[in-house]
Amino acid sequence: MTSKKAHSSALQEKAGISQPESISSQSVEHIQHSRKVQPSAEELVEGILAGNITALSRAITLVESTNPIHLAKANTIINSCLPFANKSVRIGITGVPGVGKSTFIEAFGKHLTSLGKKVAVLAVDPSSTISHGSILGDKTRMEELVKDPNAFIRPSASGETLGGVARKTRETITLCEAAGFDTIIIETVGVGQSETAVHSMVDFFLLLKIAGAGDELQGIKRGIMEMADAIVINKADGDNIKNAQFAKVEFNRALHLFPAKKSGWTPKTTTCSALTSEGIPEVWNTITEFLNLTQSNSYFFEKRKEQNQFWMLETINDQLKSNFYSSTGIQQLLESTKKAVQNDEISPFAAATLLLEKYFTK
Q1: CA 259 to CA 317: how far, in whole Å?
Q2: Contact in structure between 186 and 307 (CB atoms under 8 Å)
Q3: Which string of DSSP letters, residue by residue, matches 14-78?
Q4: How far apart are CA 237 and CA 256, in angstroms?
Q5: What is the pLDDT of residues 105-164, one digit of tens each?
């Protein structure tokens, strides 16, 4: 009887070839060390003035931080950059969700960079009132513009700030201008809240609309329509071109109901398609026309002065509020006072007066 040859199982795994180390341990160690080293305010300012995007991003993070330790460093950076700022055009863009703000800004930004402009987009994303989180997905939606070497996109969470503008957007504008960006675009959340904040920090306020959404009649109402320097009907392509032209006529009629602006500028309505870039150059031509008029009659410069004064007062309000709630004495008294208000033991107004007196006599 012949003996059978022993065979290895087909399920047996053979030893493979080990992969070589794909990442240098020295490189990893260098990166980790670099991340731990925090650059000084002077180093960040030097990087910003040299157009270093990494330095600009790190400085903006410091400015947006709520950590009191970062406040002094952020103020040093802003004050150092201030002499190199105020050399840009600031454009505010708003509109209801779904109007195509991100798509429009990408097409508009690409047009500006093709003209040799350096564009910074400060996109404000809505924060959840429940989780307080924010998606910050504007870079994903502007995939072409984000790759442009002459463009910088910085998404920020709106937090609890009214107007859909992040608390430190005004200071971020200063840093971007010092970094050499000559066109600053501020995109608001656009969910129907007060747009006064963005209007008070830009030179030109652009309102995006869409046709066929039933909001043509809203044009006769005041508010945001009064603040707009131009209305752009987006998505004027395909079967929607006729509707967009009709909406343009309706909004032009509505604009005539408002009093004349101090700038001497008559707001205009135009149509465009962010998908095909049709009408995008005309939007920039409108803005250029506005700038030529307001700079020649000095309204542009007077408005900048008023905005600086407004933001000084706003900063005082923010700082007082922050100091009030971070006060140890107030924190201890606040909880018990809130319970007393809930139980109708004291009126809300008397409770507020009590807390304020406690704070100011501290």
Answers
A1: 31
A2: no
A3: PP-PPPPP-S-HHHHHHHHHHHHSPPPHHHHHHHHHTT-HHHHHHHHHHHH---HHHHHHHHHHH
A4: 27
A5: 999 999 999 999 999 999 876 544 444 444 445 666 788 898 899 999 998 765 555 444
